[in-house]
Task: inverse folding
């Protein structure tokens, strides 16, 4: 059995927020669970070529925008799943942080971080 508290997990500054990584590849579960904070007013262009990701919003608000320009509001109780390695924009509202519980499969090693300084989509 694995028991972890948020104060004891690996925390990664991923570019526009924090990713607190509760389960990693080394845990042998086959997936990662994170508690992710997206800072208010940030826009991240992301793509996961090696992982599938699902995110469930527990606090704050924002939107996810696909490559066709479709915008989907993210508020507490909303889940979005990137089931086709979808490139996307994750945008936190200007007035509050966005907090997500995210699952990745296959599991993350734990040290992955985005490079948001490029014009390309940040990936891992």
Result:
């Amino acid at each position: 059995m694995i028991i972890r508290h948020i104060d004891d997990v690996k925390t990664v500054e991923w570019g526009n927020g924090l990713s607190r990584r509760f389960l990693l590849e080394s845990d042998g579960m086959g997936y990662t669970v994170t508690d992710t904070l997206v800072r208010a007013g940030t826009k991240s262009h992301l793509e996961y070529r090696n992982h599938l990701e699902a995110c469930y919003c527990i606090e704050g608000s924002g939107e996810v925008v696909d490559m066709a320009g479709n915008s989907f509001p993210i508020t507490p109780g909303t889940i979005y799943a990137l089931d086709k390695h979808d490139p996307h924009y994750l945008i936190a509202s200007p007035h509050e942080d966005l907090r997500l519980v995210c699952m990745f499969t296959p599991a993350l090693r734990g040290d992955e971080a985005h490079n948001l300084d490029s014009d390309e989509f940040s990936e891992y």
